[in-house]
Amino acid sequence: MNLQESLERATRIANLGHWDWDIRKDNHTYSRVMFQIMGMEREPKSFSYQDFLSRIHADDVESLDRCVKQSLATGSPFDTIYRLQREDEIRYIHTQDQLSNVKHSIEF
User: Fold this and answer.
1) Do residues 13 and 7 make contact, with C-beta atoms less than 8 angstroms apart?
2) What mean pLDDT value characterizes the chain?
């Protein structure tokens, strides 16, 4: 089993999603578990920051956006909880990261 397969297995067992954000291209790449958490059946050809925000509960968009922009501007870590609006339910998402390294982990 290679490193990528081990990571996918561990995240599936822990029900832990992760994603990368190419800020220059404004494109997110999600793990399989992250797609499940987001309620997405398959990977879209592209998924921008605005696409991501469109899936966030309307009452949480402004505070999440502010948190992300502050981390991008300062390189400081953040730890936040927000609601993800899926077609069938609302999920509470806990995100911890530091955007200077542009790697993200999300669990619920």
Assistant:
1) no
2) 82
- The answer to whether the beta carbons of residues 13 and 102 sit under 8 Å apart is no
Show Cβ contacts of residue 97 under 8 Å, excluding neighbours closer than 6 positions.
Answer: 71, 77, 78, 103, 104, 105
Q: What is the 3-state secondary structure (H, E, C) of 17-64?
A: EEEEEECCCCEEEECHHHHHHHCCCCCCCCCCHHHHHCCECCCCHHHH
Amino acid at 77: P
Nearest to 55 by CA among 95, 83, 21: 83
Residue whose C-alpha is closest to residue 28's, from 53, 57, 49: 49
Can you name the residues that pair with 77 across neighbouring β-strands? 98
Note the pLDDT of residue 102. Answer: 47
Query: What local confidence, expressed as pLDDT, does residue 6 receive?
Result: 87
